[in-house]
């Protein structure tokens, strides 16, 4: 199974938390870290990455600084976030162009693994952060509150 690592979990937790706040309200990494009992340094790092590398957040520096969501989360895929937090990813070593596999020339599963990797990438690109972060009732399929919807849509 392709696992979600902790850094990605912290990024998703921060985004969900921030999407439930009043639009324009700043959120500090300490606030997120305290709310979810996550390591401050790791939380701050992923929020910084989302601001600097992904443009998903905007950072405001200073004593009363913090972050706010700047992109419409309906237009940002989980694949986009994975690339911001983890960099380019591949299922197996042979698909990682930066670290070529030593048995690539004799491997008999390159083609099926390449196909699987393409399908997973396609799927991750099809799931928006809005879809992932907005909860829906299992019974009705409706969102529990409209405030979250407004913030997530930008």
Characterization of the model:
This protein has seven helices and two strands. The protein is mainly α and 154 residues long. The protein has one domain: Winged helix-like DNA-binding domain superfamily/Winged helix DNA-binding domain (Arc Repressor Mutant, subunit A). A two-stranded antiparallel ribbon has the order 1-2. α2 crosses α3.
Largest sheet: 2 strands, antiparallel
Overall structural domain count: 1
User: What separation lies between the terminal Cα atoms?
Assistant: 33 Å
Helix content: 40-55%
According to CATH, the homologous superfamily is: Winged helix-like DNA-binding domain superfamily/Winged helix DNA-binding domain
What is the level 1 CATH name? Mainly Alpha
Beta content comes to 5-15%
Q: Architecture, according to CATH? A: Orthogonal Bundle
Query: Secondary-structure element order, as H and E?
Result: HHHEEHHHH
Q: Which stretches are low in confidence, meaning pLDDT under 50 for 5 or more residues running?
A: 146-153
Task: Based on Cα principal axes, name the global outline.
Answer: elongated
Radius of gyration: 18 Å
The CATH topology label is Arc Repressor Mutant, subunit A
**Which structural class do you get from the secondary structure elements?**
mainly alpha
What is the overall number of helices? 7
* Side-by-side strand order of the widest sheet: 1-2
How many distinct beta strands?
2
């Amino acid at each position: 199974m392709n696992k979600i690592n902790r850094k990605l979990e912290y990024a998703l937790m921060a985004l969900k938390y921030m999407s439930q706040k009043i639009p324009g309200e700043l959120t500090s990494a300490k606030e997120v870290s305290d709310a979810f009992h996550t390591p401050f340094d790791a939380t701050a790092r992923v929020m910084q990455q989302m601001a600097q590398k992904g443009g998903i957040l905007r950072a405001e520096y200073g004593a009363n600084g913090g972050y706010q969501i700047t992109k419409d989360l309906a237009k940002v895929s989980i694949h986009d976030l994975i690339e911001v937090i983890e960099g380019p990813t591949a299922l197996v070593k042979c698909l990682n162009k930066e670290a070529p596999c030593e048995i690539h020339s004799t491997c008999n599963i390159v083609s099926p693994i390449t196909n699987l990797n393409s399908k997973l990438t396609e799927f991750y690109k099809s799931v928006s952060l809005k879809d992932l972060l907005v909860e829906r009732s299992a019974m009705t399929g409706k969102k529990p509150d409209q405030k979250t919807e407004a913030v997530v849509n930008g």
